[in-house]
Amino acid sequence: MALNLFKLSSPASFYPFAGRLIPWFVVLTVLLTVAGLYLGFVVAPTDYKQGEAYRIMFVHVPAAWMSMFIYVVMAVYAGLALVMNTRLSTMMATALAPTGAMFTFIALWTGAFWGKPMWGAWWVWDARLTSELILLFLYIGYMSLYAAIDDPRRAARASGLLVLVGVVNVPVIYFSVKWWNTLHQGASVSFGQAPEMAATMLMAMLIMSLAFWMYTIAIVLMRVRCEILERERQSEWVQEAIARERGNG
Amino acid sequence: MMTTGPLTAMFCLLRRELILAGRRVSDVLTTLFFFVIIVSLFPLGVSPESETLRTIAPGVVWVAALLASMLALARLFDEDYRDGSLEQMLLAPQPLALLVLGKVLAHWLLTGAPLVLISPLLGLQFGLSAADLKVLVIALLLGTPSLSLIGSIGAALTLGLRGGGVLVSLLILPLYVPVLIFGAGAVEAAASGLGADAHISLLAAILIIAFCCVPWVTAAALRISLD
């Protein structure tokens, strides 16, 4: 089967295509999550230094990775939207934002839970934590700008521009926070080097990140489908699709 | 008919903004007094002890400058948007980015520069030494134009929206973080004897990059908002 990408970039043909893909990604999410959690919580050995508490890493690290990847992916879509003026890419960028914000929040939250037993504090102003927090603010800014503008076309383009500005700033923010932090010598903990990890631990972490990827794809496809229906509600094919659904139900 | 050159147009716009502001000086003074009041609240809220004040002074002055410059952003494009002159600028034959630069420059002269001028006085109240005051002024001089430039993106994106003022803070404050860090860091580094050169250079670098790139981004944002 030859996939015609140009055809798929039209919402009318992407809508049913996404609908067919979603169940597969949901199944993959469930399988990978179960496998990853089993490996991480049952098979992986207890850490000699951190005890059992380190196991939160299997959620924390993949969530932190995802939070950053999703922002970059959003920026790519926003850039595509501004350059090629494709409707679908703006919808993808919008659909990704809540998931990205959620993973950022999870990363911060689980980080706090990890930090308490490890360093005796819920929060330290470490460079990574601080830049992750600022990333959360960037996501929130994006979503509030999108929500504040009534015209969806202007909303998508304006927030797309904001994401592009943000993605240029993310490295600057990261390095400035890092230098600020080293100057202050505040946090006594350094996460400079990754500790030597057992192979099962690494495996569990990779499987969990794959699971998060699959989850992101599934949920984003669902959200994009809603977004397509909402924005194209005047068009003929949406009317037909709705009529068909009603007929079935 | 000869068209006006781009730079001439930019300076015309700058002059117009300054004349307009001259007719209503209270607008300029409001931002300035906002800055002064915010800074004066900290000794009341934290502690009047001179040692504490000296440590928090750079951060307090910088955070207040951030807030004051953000508060003034609402006036950057709003009036021109309402009376239609912004649309004329979009239609003008001169590049929009240059006109934006003119407006931002005027905005900085009216809101940023007064802050820089009054900051030594506030620094004195917080017990900073003369050498630290000098660093504070230089850092603000290099940092506040960056704040005006970066802020103009947010002002352009939120043009004519409900609750635009609060929204601008959500969009722009995270982007201000590097300026805040290097700006306040410069004074702290000078006070602790490390030397502020590195911070000052970084602030200058941020300013140069913002100066070159931001007007184009703001111009694009204005075109989106007025589409």
Task: Outline the secondary-structure elements.
The complex is a heterodimer of chains A (249) and B (227).
Chain A: H1 5-8, H2 11-43, H3 57-84, H4 87-119, H5 127-148, H6 152-184, H7 199-231, H8 236-248
Helix pairs in contact in A: 2-7, 3-4, 3-6, 3-7, 4-5, 4-7, 5-6
Chain B: H1 6-23, H2 25-45, H3 50-71, H4 74-83, H5 85-91, H6 96-125, H7 130-157, H8 164-191, H9 197-225
Helix pairs in contact in B: 1-6, 2-3, 2-6, 3-6, 3-7, 3-8, 6-7, 6-9, 7-8, 7-9, 8-9
What is the end-to-end distance of chain A?
31 Å
Written as H for each helix and E for each strand, in order along the chain, the element string of chain A is HHHHHHHH
**Structural domain count of chain B:** 1
Oligomer: heterodimer
Tally of helical segments of chain A: 8
Strand residue content of chain B: under 5%
Q: List SSEs of chain B in N-to-C order.
A: HHHHHHHHH
Number of strands of chain B: 0
Average residue pLDDT of chain A: 83
Supply the helix-strand structural class of chain A: mainly alpha
Mean pLDDT of chain B: 89
What share of the residues of chain A does DSSP label as strand, in percent?
A: under 5%
- List low-confidence stretches of chain A: 185-193
- The global form of chain A is globular
Rg for CA atoms of chain A = 21 Å
Largest sheet of chain B: none
Kindly report the greatest chain-chain contact and the residue count on each side.
A-B, 25 and 28 residues
